[in-house]
Amino acid sequence: MKNFSTWMILSLDVIFWILRIIATYTDAMGMEFLIKPMDVNTEILLLFVALISFLFIAKRKIFGGVLYLVAYAGYFGVYLWNYFTATEGQMTDEYLNVFFSFIGIILPIITLLDLFLDKNRKLRPTDKKTDWFYRNKKYDIQKDERADKNNYRTL
Question: What average pLDDT score do residues 11-28 get?
């Protein structure tokens, strides 16, 4: 995660995740909040899945972005589909829930696009366990005529 845009996208994901935690907590306690979860049990499961996917996204794994998109699209997409296919008599005035559902669909798409478009992930993968040695000229072993002929470096 070397790009500023990647940090900003992941921070927006975490802020939205915290907002969903607050919404779930207030609904479970019976308090009023701006938004209301559709199903509290599914929302709690979704919060844990999102937390796991954030860890994979921070490590720049495509699996985390796909997991995040599938989970959020499955949860918020069903709500949006039901809202827009409802007849006029069944529609409710839950515009904030619709707005936050759109955000819940758009954020994972942006995150996955950022993972796909990140060139540093494939061009220069880093491994902190070995890069300090292999990419540092300070630790090159100087040989002289008495030195053995073993290869100290494998690259």
Answer: 94
State the residue range of the domain holding 76. 4-127
pLDDT of residue 120: 64
User: Count of alpha carbons within 13 Å of 29, Cβ hemisphere only?
Assistant: 9
Total structural domains within the chain: 1
Q: Is residue 152 a part of any domain in this protein?
A: no
- 114-128 pLDDT tens trace: 988 876 655 556 666
Q: Among candidates 42, 44, 50, 70, which has minimal Cα distance to 10?
A: 50
| pTM value > 0.85 | no
Rounded Cα–Cα distance for residues 31 and 29 (Å)? 6
Does residue 43 sit within a domain? yes
Q: Would you say residue 153 lies in a domain?
A: no
